[in-house]
Amino acid sequence: MNQKSYRLFFKKGLRILRWTFLCYLLYFIICITIPFSKMKEVSEEFRSNFSVEQFYSDSTGVDRAMVVEDSLDALNLRLNMIEQAKETILFSTFSMKQDVICEQIFSAVYAAAERGIKVLILGDGLSCSVDMGKNPMYYALGTHPNVTIRFYNNLNLLKPWTFNGRMHDKYIIIDDQILLLGGRNTSGYFLGNSDGKHLSYDRDILVYNTAANTNSSKESVITQVRDYFYSVWNLKECTDEFNTIPFFKKEKIEQAKQMFFKTYQELCDTQPELFKPTDYMSMTLPTNKITLITNPTHIMSKEPYILYELFELMKQAKERVWIQSPYLVFNDTMYKNFQALSESIPDFRVLLNSTAVGDNFMASSDYTFNRSKVLATGAQFYEFQGNRSTHNKSLVIDDEIAIIGSFNFDMRSVYLDTEVMLIVHGKEFTSELAFYISKMQNELALPVLADGSYGENLDVEPAIMSKFHRVIYPITSVIFQLFRYLL
Question: How many whole angstroms separate alpha carbon 276 and alpha carbon 463?
Fold first, then answer.
C-alpha cells in the first residue's frame, strides 16, 4: 500500500469510527432517557394492602432510638458499633471513597474480620466503581476470607438502559442488635471532621434492639432491615468485587493490610473510648414502633412506594408537618400533593438548600427554573444559608411520627433509586428530631416569602452564590428541563 492509499484508508477508518461513536452516543442517550420518561403510579394491589395504622403501636416497643446529628459522632459511632460485633456486619452504602475516613472505618472492619466476624459490604455499582477505583485497600478487604464486597448494578455500556438503576441505601447492621441508617455516605465529606472545608451536614438514626437474642427480637425493625439487605444482596444484578488479587498489585495489597493494622492500632491508642463497650440503652430513647419502608429494588423505573406512603402519612397530620430535604425536584403529582397539604395543615414547612450552598448541581439548576412554581404550592419554605450544604432527609408529623432515611423529594429518589426510610412512632424521639430541624431552621436558614424574596432572620445572612453558578444556572436550568425526570 502506497502512502496516498494509506492516508485514504486512515481517513476512511476515522470516519467510520466517528460515525460509530455518534451512533452509539445517540443509542446511549435514547436508552437512558426514553424508558424513564413515563413515571409510574403505585398499583391498586399496593394501595389496597397499605394502611397507616401499620406504623403505630399503643405500647412501648423493643426498639430504642436516637438522632445522630454531628458528623464526628457519626464516625465515632460507626467505629464503636463495628467493634461491638460478635457475629455479622452488614454494610450498605451508595458511595465509598479512598480518603482517611474510609481507611479508619475499614481498618476497624478488617480488624473485625480478623476476629472471625462475617462482613458483607454492598455498594452502588456506578458510584463505588468510580469512587473506590482500584485502591489496594479494597482488595485487601475484599480478599479476606471473612469479607465479601458486592456492587449493585454495575455499569454495562452494552445495556445503557440499566444506567439509571442506582442503590441509594446507607445503613450498617451489627448482629441483630444495632442499626445505623440515614443519609450519610462513607467518606470524609459526611463523616468526622478531617476536612472541615468540604463537609456536608447530614443525619442518621441509631436503633438499639433491646430484645436481641430473645424470641421477641423479630419485632425489631432491625429484622426488617436485615431481611431487606439480603433481598438486595441476592439480586442477580449484584456481583462480587475485589475478590481476586491482580498479580501486579500483590505488594501494594500487602502494604494496604499493614496500613489497616497501623491505622486500627493508632485509633485504639489515641481514642480508646471508641473501642470499649457502650451503653446504647442509656443513649437512646424509647419508641412505640419503628418500621422500614423501601422502594422496589429492581433497576428500571419504579412504582413510587415511599412517596405514596409518606403522603398518606402526612395526610393524617392535624397540626404540623416539617420536611427537610436537600433538594426539591417535583412532578405534577408532587406539586398537587404539596398544595393540598399546605391547605389542610396549619404548620406545613419545608427546609432545603438555597442554590447558593446546594452541592447537587443538577437539582439546584432545576430549582432555579422551577422555584416560583414550588413556592406556589403554599408551604412555608426555608432555604439553608450555611457555609456548607445540607444532605439531611427527615420528616416530623405532629408530635408522634418522625422519619429519617436516604430519600430526597426529587424524582430520582421517587422513581429510580432504591431508598430506605425508618418511620418512628414515639413522642420523645419525634421531639428530639423536631429540635434539630428547628435549630437548623432558626440558626442557619431564611424564610422564603411568596414573591421569592427572603423574610427576616436577624441571625442569618443570605449566602452568596459563586460567580460561576450565577452565570451557569440560568443556562443549565433550561437545558435540564429536557430530562428533569432523571434528576
Answer: 42
pLDDT at position 198 is 74
202, 182 Cβ separation under 8 angstroms:
yes
pLDDT in tens, 433-450: 999 999 999 999 999 999
**Residue 215, Cβ density class (10 Å: 0-12 exposed, 13-18 middle, ≥19 buried):** exposed
* In contact, 456 and 382? CB cutoff 8 Å: no
Cα separation, 237 vs 160, in Å, equals 14
The three-point CA angle 96-393-404 to 5° equals: 95
In angstroms, rounded to a whole number, what is the distance separating the alpha carbons of residues 443 and 450?
Answer: 21
Pairing of strands 204-209, 238-241: unpaired
DSSP state for residue 220 in the 8-state scheme: S
Dist. CA 349–CA 347, nearest whole Å: 6
CA distance 263 to 108: 9
What is the model's pTM?
Answer: 0.94
Instruction: Sheet containing 147-152: give its strands across.
Output: 238-241, 147-152, 118-124, 88-93, 171-174, 178-182, 204-209, 63-68, 285-286
Answer yes or no: are the C-beta atoms of 281 and 208 closer than 8 Å: yes
- How far from the centroid of its chain's Cα atoms is residue 434's Cα? 20
Q: By the 8 A CB rule, do 217 and 223 touch?
A: yes
Question: Are 382 and 444 within 8 A, CB to CB?
Answer: no
Q: For residue 204, what is its C-alpha cell?
A: 442518621
Give residue 195's pLDDT: 62
Contacts of 478 (CB under 8 A, 6+ apart): 369
List, edge to edge, every strand of the sheet that includes 401-405.
289-294, 420-425, 401-405, 394-397, 320-324, 347-353, 380-384, 445-447
Q: Are strands 285-286 and 401-405 parallel, antiparallel or unpaired?
A: unpaired
Query: Which three cell numbers mark 291?
Result: 418500621
Q: 475, 267, 239: which is closest to 361 by C-alpha?
A: 475
On whether the CB atoms of residues 83 and 108 are closer than 8 A, the answer is yes
Residue ranges of the chain with per-residue pLDDT less than 70: 1-10, 194-197
Residue 252's CB is within 10 A of a number of other CB atoms, namely 17
